[in-house]
Amino acid sequence: MKKIAIMGAMPEEVAPILQKLGEYKTTEYAGNKYYEATYKGVELVVAYSKIGKVFSTLTATTMIEHFSCDTLLFSGVAGAINPNLKIGDLIVATKLSQHDLDITAFGHPMGYVPEGSVFVKSDKELLALSKEVARELEKNVIEGIIATGDQFIHDEKIKENIVKHFNADALEMEGGSVAVVCNALGVPFFILRAISDTADTDASFSFDEFMESSAIISAEFIMKMVDKIIEQ
Ligand code: OS5
Fold first, then answer.
1. pLDDT tens per residue across span 137-196
2. Tell me, what DSSP letter sits at residue 46?
3. Rounded to whole angstroms, how far apart are CA atoms 4 and 68?
């Protein structure tokens, strides 16, 4: 039977998903709670990791290695870089990078370490399914590059620098590390984010105002992705 991991970083990012499941079993493991449920004949494991690359690495690894998930979907919010992305809009990552990974002192490009790569590509089949879901929901979903780092960005200059190095459309704090884990362990992954702010000086206020509503928009799309994966 398929076992799908659904991850967020913050409680608000997974709450709308848990609400849709109704009944679930809760297991505590390595400082996080994992919620297991059967949904339309497939097994789901839902968890929020806590914020940032380290916690999200731990949770993604746990979902795959301990809970034996074979597909990973991430649902959450992001700061927009691409001016076409407005509050509440959805972005699907085609590839992800770590914008704060810097050994340029040794002549390497930003985001690169030896035996790694600047970008990790998302699963093509899940991207194709998301296009079908977007069509069916009549939702405009942008596909683009997501840059991840251990910083809440609220500064135009930092945004410009991230565009210069990664040509990113949106930024957040977990997707790039989840992508590295899934790629290394051979698990197809899909990172979806709804915009909560534009990573400028007002970002924290915008985030506080819109994070919950944007998290719901992302979670609704993710559950349609689950339906689509089941339909296949
Ligand atoms: O998970 C973090 C990354 N998320 C995406 C995001 C983002 N990332 C970088 N820059 C931006 N401009 C971004 N916009 C959206 C969102 C999240 C950001 S960190 C938010 C922290 C907010 C907070 N701090 N304390 N609490 C909430 C309350 C609290 C207290 C105890 C336990 C849990 C929460």
1. 999 999 999 999 999 999 999 999 999 999 999 999 999 999 999 999 999 999 999 999
2. E
3. 9
Residue 103 Cα to ligand 1 midpoint, Å, equals 26
Q: Which pTM value belongs to this model?
A: 0.98
Q: Is the pLDDT of residue 1 over 90?
A: no
- Ligand 1 neighbours, Cβ below 6 Å, are 9-10, 51, 77-79, 152-154, 171-174, 196-197, 199, 203, 207
3-state secondary structure of 14: helix
Inter-residue contact 157 to 41 (CB < 8 Å):
no
| C-alpha 107 – ligand 1 centre gap (Å) | 33
pLDDT above 70: percentage of residues in the chain = 100
Euclidean distance between CA atoms 90 and 88, whole angstroms = 7
Q: Are 63 and 45 in contact (CB under 8 A)?
A: yes
Q: Indicate the domain borders of the chain.
A: 3-231
Candidate of 148, 152, 174 to mutate for ligand 1, largest count of ligand atoms within 8 Å of Cβ: 152
As a whole number of angstroms, the distance between CA 3 and CA 8 comes to 17
pLDDT tens, position by position, 4-42: 999 999 999 999 999 999 899 999 999 999 999 999 999
Q: Taking 90 as the threshold, does the pLDDT of residue 45 lie above it?
A: yes
Fold adopted by 3-231: Rossmann fold (3.40.50)
